[in-house]
Amino acid sequence: MYDRLKAACQKDWDAYTQHDFVKGIARGDLPKECFQHYLKQDYLFLIHFARAYALSIYKADTIEDMRYGMEGVTAILDKELELHVAYSNEWGINPKEMENLEESKATMAYTRYVLERGMAGTIVDLHVALSPCVVGYAEIARWILEQDFTVLEGNPYRSWIDTYGGAEYQDHAGAAIERLSAAAARGSASDFDRYAKTFRDATRLEIGFWQMGLDLSE
């Protein structure tokens, strides 16, 4: 399922996973202020993704799906947000500043799209909308580690690369792919065109999120 979704929007997928923002992280020459802007907005992004996983509990057809959604909510609220705050502190970002931030247009567009797909569609539609972020970051980290121009020694973004390229996150992404495939298998093959559109739209919004960081746009 996941590979079919990517293949249906390969040009957009490549533009997302090989974006100039990503290349800047790989080389270590992404301007500091661009990364800081991204980190601030990503904090707000995670809050809405916790809501999306909470919605997946409501949309779930099985206890197993409900537990998966709960794991997502717990992981974000009890772990990822705390790690994000600690990481942002290292970059000179005050946690209070993040709590009072205004969302950028790119953040609003992406997070509200995911929630809308979840509200209007099934749990599969929601997982499809989530997957470019959840699984895409794992693929991006692997892509970075495969490039000849990637610099790891002395790279200020090394910990970001290590986090998403590490075994824990890679396993998390693999589980998300399995969950998506299992949920889709219970649906109809005729739904694929709708899933493909959602996946492409979410991928395009991911491109916009990177570009927001690069342009320092509000």
UniProtKB/TrEMBL annotation:
GO terms for molecular function: thiaminase activity. It catalyses: thiamine + H2O = 5-(2-hydroxyethyl)-4-methylthiazole + 4-amino-5-hydroxymethyl-2-methylpyrimidine + H(+); 4-amino-5-aminomethyl-2-methylpyrimidine + H2O = 4-amino-5-hydroxymethyl-2-methylpyrimidine + NH4(+). One of its GO terms (biological process) is thiamine diphosphate biosynthetic process. Pathway: Cofactor biosynthesis; thiamine diphosphate biosynthesis. Keywords: Hydrolase, Thiamine biosynthesis. Coiled coil: none annotated. Residues 10-215 form the Thiaminase-2/PQQC domain. Its EC number is 3.5.99.2. InterPro entries: Haem_Oase-like_multi-hlx (IPR016084), Thiaminase-2/PQQC (IPR004305), Thiaminase_II (IPR027574), Thiamine_Salvage_TenA (IPR050967). SUPFAM superfamilies: Heme oxygenase-like. GO terms for cellular component: cytosol. Catalyzes an amino-pyrimidine hydrolysis reaction at the C5' of the pyrimidine moiety of thiamine compounds, a reaction that is part of a thiamine salvage pathway. Belongs to the TenA family. NCBIfam families: salvage_TenA. This is Aminopyrimidine aminohydrolase.
